[in-house]
Amino acid sequence: MLLSVLSVVSYEVAIKPSARKRNAKVGRFVFEKGSRRELSHRDAADRWAAELSVGDGHVWIAAAHPADQSSADGYLVSRATNDKLEAAYDKRRRRFRGGTDYEQNQLWTAGYWVLR
After folding, report:
1. Which end of the chain is more exposed for a tag (fewer CB within 10 A), N or C?
2. Can you point out the beta strands (E) in the chain?
3. Do the beta carbons of residue 23 and residue 78 sit within 8 Å?
4. Exposed/middle/buried for 80, CB within 10 Å: 0-12, 13-18, 19+?
5. Sign of the C-alpha dihedral computed for residues 93, 94, 96 and 97 taken in this order
């Protein structure tokens, strides 16, 4: 009698703190079920991330680096940012690039706006 062994292919996803902080559904999942999820394959993991992103912070699956020593095949990640800080960074970056906006070409000196 010949027995065939079925190998179950799985794709293990580890949830990074950035995804948990950015997306309430992910935070709830981690609270209830833990910080890892096993899915059948990468496409299923991508669909799961897309479902989580609907109406909440955007999350996606990033493949694990080949040299990664963990058992995870991929990571659920997000860009956990503070929008106000992001805007401030963009404003400074424009200023350093020499933006042409009127406000970018002024200096605040001793309580007065001075054109450069």
Report:
1. N
2. 11-15, 36-39, 60-63, 74-77, 106-109, 112-115
3. yes
4. middle
5. positive
Mean pLDDT, consecutive 10-residue stretches, the chain (116 aa), reads 56 94 93 95 95 91 91 90 55 56 51 52
> From CA 65, how far away is CA 61, in angstroms rounded?
12
Rounded CA separation 41/12 (Å): 8
Residues 51 and 98 in one domain: no
CA distance 26 to 39: 15
pLDDT recorded at residue 94: 59
Amino acid identity at 76:
L
Residue 110 is predicted with a pLDDT of 52
Per-residue pLDDT at 104:
47
Q: How many CA atoms within 13 Å lie on the side-chain side of 24? A: 3
Range of the domain at 26: 11-77
Domain count, the chain: 2
pTM exceeds cut of 0.85? no
